[in-house]
Amino acid sequence: MTDFWLNGEKIVWEGDPAIRVIDLLREKLGRTGTKEGCGTGECGACAIHVNGELHLSCLMLAGQLQGCRVTTIEGMAPAGGIHPLQQAFLDSGAVQCGFCIPGMVMAGAALRAKVPDPSERQIREGLSGNLCRCTGYGKIIQAVRSLSLSGSAAEEGNP
Predict the structure, then answer these.
(1) What is the pTM of this model?
(2) CA dihedral 51, 34, 91, 134 (to 10 degrees)
């Protein structure tokens, strides 16, 4: 049995503790915002926050979540709203197919939690494990940077 908090909700997983977290989230718990791209930790599409740190859910097992606080893309926004970083992605035109965006937002939010006003270099480094094939990185970097410049870091939710 694995007990953890998912987006503020207590979860008691009585299934296989060796199931990958990405499979637990998507197939068992219906949290399909987290995407699986490569399944090998190369693309970043499956990024989640575990105890406030960025992790790749395709490389984690459910048993590793015992007692942890997990945030997925679904848990980033306030109830009935949109997270400021998600809005910055929309405003900057940084979304095309959208497949990589959950991981990009999770990585951007983790960076912002550590570095409230990151430089472009820090943003590039913070997003370096995430791949995008549609939008390109310019608009994505602009989205993360624009949030820094707008001074809305205090409005951001948890990473």
Answers:
(1) 0.88
(2) 130
